[in-house]
Write a structure and sequence with these properties.
Elements lengths: L12 E7 L10 H18 L1 E8 L3 E8 L5 H19 L12 E5 L3 H11 L1 H4 L14 H4 L12 H4 L5 H13 L11 H4 L3 E2 L2 H10 L1
Parallel strand pairs: 4-5
Antiparallel strand pairs: 1-3, 1-4, 2-3
Length: about 210
């Protein structure tokens, strides 16, 4: 069976996930995380890609982004992950595949579903029992949205900007949404967000399926 065709439509919001080969825990040092962020920064600046959020874990990572440039997103991220694999293997004198298969993308509806996806990405370290509060995890975009630290890699998503007229208002509402308005069932791994073709309303998913 052939590989599924990669989607390329300007403006689509995509939740991209990728895992290390054999789910190995290869991200161990701060420089490992930073090297991947540096490459992503190059890609964003060169290829007109809007990066809205991310979380880097020790054996996988989450990215929320959309494409506006002429270069297919598949080519851009293939470059990032390929360059990173070469950097890692060269740095640690390692051989073999670094990533497990190809990355996966889920199309996210740009309404409350986008906020739910952002919360899901931010709370990944909490689900993994690394921290109790996503604000305590250093390798994610949550501090940017929580008003703690400016992350030049990120662009604020429109649904976040719609949460309030003023920055302090948006920060307060978003932090409450991510840190407090969460039930145990909502904090589990969600295949619809990280493994499905699309995450959104029934009408949204039907429209996408009819278009591809």
């Amino acid at each position: 069976m052939g590989r599924p065709q990669r989607i390329r439509v300007d403006g689509l919001l995509l939740h991209l996930t990728i895992r290390c080969n054999n789910r190995e825990f290869n991200f161990n040092q701060p420089k490992d995380y930073q090297a991947l962020l540096n490459l992503m920064q190059e890609m964003v600046e060169a290829n007109r890609i809007c990066l809205y959020d991310y979380t880097l874990m020790s054996n996988h990572s989450h990215w929320l982004l959309s494409q506006w440039g002429d270069i297919p997103l598949s080519s851009s991220v293939r470059w990032v992950f390929g360059e990173y694999a070469r950097w890692y293997n060269r740095t640690y004198q390692r051989r073999g595949h670094f990533w497990e298969d190809r990355y996966h993308t889920t199309i996210i509806e740009q309404d409350d579903h986008a906020l739910i996806c952002m919360r899901y990405i931010a709370r990944n370290p909490v689900r993994a029992m690394i921290v109790n509060n996503p604000l305590d995890y250093p390798w994610s975009g949550y501090k940017h949205y929580a008003g703690v630290k400016i992350d030049p890699l990120l662009k604020l998503h429109p649904v976040y900007l719609a949460m309030g007229r003023y920055p302090k208002e948006r920060v307060k509402r978003y932090r409450d949404f991510v840190e407090n308005q969460i039930q145990a069932e909502q904090d589990k791994r969600n295949q619809r967000i990280s493994g499905a073709f699309a995450f959104g309303s029934k009408a949204f998913r039907t429209h996408l399926k009819e278009g591809y």
